[in-house]
UniProtKB/TrEMBL annotation:
Coiled coil: none
Transmembrane annotation, as ranges: none
Organism for this UniProt entry: Mariniflexile ostreae
A Pfam family it matches: GldH_lipo
Name this polypeptide is given: Gliding motility lipoprotein GldH
Keyword Lipoprotein in annotation: yes
Domain of life: Bacteria
Keywords: Lipoprotein, Signal
Residues annotated as signal peptide: 1-20
Amino acid sequence: MLLNKVLLLFLVFSCVLVSCDSNRVYDVYKPVPNAWHKDSVVRFEITPPDSTRAYNLFVNLRNTNQYKFNNLFLIVEMVFPHGKTVTDTLEYRMADPKGKLLGTGLSDVKENKLWYKEHIVFNEKGNYTVNIQHAMRENGKVNGVIELDGITDVGFRIENIKNKQ
């Protein structure tokens, strides 16, 4: 009985926390099964929000202690509705100098909110596609890491820009 009340309280508190995120416009995660293969592309189809406003864009990641690197290289591609494609190779720090994983979370799963682009206006009509894949390599090796362990989910987030007052 007490356990049910505690679970109900936790559920209500979680819903309140999630609903208080007024900056969120789009926030979707996709699971990575077992390990993230170097040829596996995580794809997000986005119906653009208001075409007159600017937004900040983020790549979100959830990782476990099985992630053994201090950094992460990603190839992020944005495909515009009329065919233009912008591709970026991005590097993010994932651990401090002592090897402790960065990110938020109380368990062994850490959540990282990584800057992608800021002040972006979706001024073309139609759907946008964002493709994300990893581009990790081990030091001194030419070939990439084929199976990247420790990444459990890849997400993409669009936020309203906070007004400074």
